[in-house]
Amino acid sequence: MMNSMSLDQIAAQLESPHSKDRMLALAHLRDVSPAEAVPLILKVLDDESLQVRSMAVFALGLKPTEACYPILTKLLEADPDYGIRADAAGALGYLGDPRAVEPLMRAFYEDTDWLVRFSAAVSLGNLQDQRAEAVLLNALDSDEVVLQQAAIAALGELRAVNAVDAILRFAQSPDWLVRQRLAEALGNLPSPKSMSALKYLERDSHPQVAAAAALSLQRLEEGKESL
Which sequence spans correspond to the domains of the chain? Predict the structure, then answer.
């Protein structure tokens, strides 16, 4: 643990006129307990530097206290900067609070910026809450390829075996990252269709897709043996 002098130094550095100093001070909070860190993070939550704000918002997700959830949801719903809304969505995924599922689903449906919706989809996967399944299935129809990637990965995190049919249509996606996310997700979704798709993806022309498929196949085979 850092001693109180170190905390005082961090607090003083957060008052520095130089944004680089303030960012360094936030980085030093890494080993500080949430109860001690959060009041210091809040000092720069409305910082004039967008980089400092972004770092502070993300830090709240890594230092869970009672104060963090309402602050992050408010930022997600109301901050005028899409980058900060995206950071808040990401931080809510790290916070691990099941209450975050509703605001994240709302952000996915209502926010106009793809980056916010992407962060919301990733966080819904991190929270591994079945309520998000319908939203993520909906995201598969997005025009944004990165949203399709996030939704496929998140459905894998949710272990949503019901979603296998819906995601298999991406086995021939022209985007190799989409195919890689599919190969990774199928490793969490044991079913005969998953096995068959992974055998197909194991022969993919892109080495990272083929490697991900081989790994997922191995995981599914080991899972069968342990039953």
Answer: 4-165, 166-227
User: pLDDT by residue (tens digit) across 96-105?
Assistant: 999 999 999 9
pLDDT, tens digit (0-9, with 9 covering 90-100), for 104-142: 999 999 999 999 999 999 999 999 999 999 999 999 999
Q: How far apart are CA 184 and CA 50, in angstroms?
A: 34
What's the distance, Cα to Cα, between the start and end of the chain in Å? 44
Radius of gyration over alpha carbons of the chain, in Å? 20
Residue with tokens 């130094």: 9
From the centroid of its chain, how far is CA 21?
A: 27
Closest CA to 29 of 48, 13, 61, 7: 7
Structurally, what CATH architecture does the domain formed by 4-165 represent? Answer: Alpha Horseshoe (1.25)
CATH 3.30.70.260 is held by the domain 166-227: no
Q: What is the pLDDT at residue 225?
A: 65
